[in-house]
Design brief:
The relative contact order is 0.09. The protein is elongated, with a radius of gyration of 24 Å. The longest helix is centred in the middle third of the chain and has 31 residues. It is 40% helix and 3% strand. The protein is mainly α and 346 residues long. It starts with 18 loop residues before the first helix and ends in a 53-residue tail after the last strand. The chain is built from 10 helices and 5 strands. It binds a DNA duplex (21 and 21 nucleotides) through helix 3 and helix 6.
Length: 346
DNA sequence: AACCTTGTCAACCGCTCAAGT
DNA sequence: AACTTGAGCGGTTGACAAGGT
């Protein structure tokens, strides 16, 4: 144990690095390797502590650093890994070639965390928050969607009910997003991520199913479910699996041919966004009510994921702009058509 | 134009851990 | 076994830029 004294030494420069210092450091490491970081500054002719040199190299000067905006795929990877690993930035960074833990940490704190909060999710647990304040954006979105809600006329119980429903909406929204990503992952051989995604999805399903007795939601699982985890869920025996402890159920998802797929259905006549039935993909017989529509699993505003590389430009705002095509219900708010992670409530 | 607020990100700080003595 | 040292990690800070008033 014991703290490194290097930064306490007097006379060593701190603060931003100059181009000259960068050049010295790069030239030295390219020629000799970094070796002992403690010894490096002296050998390289730098008036810095070894720690500062190491940080500068690993976070900025390393030749394999990828700079610029995070792609949508990288965002999704960070989200998934964070839901499992928590704030283990270096572990997350090891899955993102060219990205540093510092960069990912900054990106999380300045972008992703806020977006999750805005969506009504707890950024640490990745579960929907249930306090009223955090649910407000969704309550407002619901109001926009139906234009039927007069908040001033609501009693406390009604507000509580709306709050609960908005939390479930958030869960379903996130779930659809996860399942969508799961589908695209299958085509890119990202088995690990697929497993994670499915695990998160079923964790959400579990949490939703646990309250369905008192909820307006009604889920029906596919009649034939080959996947063990999904099957156990369908029999109501799957426990609520904490997101941060996926190992016990991950093996269930080792088979990439997971047959389970879900759709979120909305009543096209009533426009009740809170009434959902979970069906298997293409299963129109599970619910005989012809007024129910099954929106495409992939958000209508975005083209279906193409095998291999992403077709969308991560920095291009137009790639997430809703066009509301594909016959989706017109009463859906904009954010239903957008990548939830990209969506920002302005 | 000046000031204030907010967002971003490079860099620092303090801690833990593992290897070495 | 006890201690020292170096490396690495996560949290935090502060400088700067951009936008708003």
């Amino acid at each position: 144990m014991g703290r490194s004294p290097c930064c306490d030494e007097n006379g060593l420069k701190k603060g931003p690095w100059t181009p000259e210092e960068d050049q010295k450091l790069v030239q030295y490491i390219q020629k000799n390797g970094h070796g002992s970081w403690r010894a490096l500054p002296k050998l390289a002719g730098l008036n810095r502590c070894g720690k500062s040199c190491r940080l500068r190299w690993t976070n900025y000067l390393r030749p394999d650093i990828k700079r610029g905006k995070f792609s949508q795929e990288e965002e999704q990877t960070i989200l998934h890994l964070h839901s499992i690993l928590g704030n283990k930035w270096s572990a997350i960074a090891s899955h993102l070639p060219g990205r540093t833990d510092n960069e990912i940490k900054n990106f999380w704190n300045t972008h992703l965390k806020k977006k999750l909060i805005q969506m009504g999710f707890d950024p640490m647990t990745h579960q929907p928050r249930t306090d009223l304040v955090s649910s407000l954006p969704y309550l407002l979105a619901l109001a926009d969607m139906t234009e039927l809600i007069d908040y001033q006329s609501l009693d406390e119980q009604a507000v509580m009910r709306l709050q609960a429903e908005s939390a479930q909406l958030a869960k379903l929204h996130y779930l659809q997003y996860l399942l969508q990503y799961s589908t695209s992952s299958l085509s890119t051989n990202s088995y690990d991520q697929t497993a994670i995604t499915n695990m998160e999805g079923f964790s959400l399903l579990n949490s939703i199913s646990n309250i369905k007795e008192n909820s307006v939601m009604n889920f029906q699982l596919p009649p034939q479910v080959d996947n063990p985890a999904a099957a156990s869920f369908s029999h109501g025996i799957a426990s609520s699996q904490p997101l941060h402890h996926p190992s016990s159920i991950l093996p269930h998802f080792s088979d990439p041919q997971v047959p389970f797929s879900s759709q979120i259905c909305l009543n096209s006549e009533t426009g009740q966004g809170t009434n959902f039935t979970m069906l298997s993909q293409g299963d129109h017989t599970a619910n005989d009510d012809s007024s129910w529509v099954i929106p495409p699993l992939v958000s209508p505003s975005r083209p279906p994921t193409v095998t291999g590389t992403s077709t969308s430009n991560p920095g291009d705002a137009s790639s997430t702009t809703s066009s509301h095509g594909g016959g989706a219900p017109s009463y859906w708010p904009d954010f239903f058509f957008e990548d939830p992670i990209m969506h920002e409530i302005s």
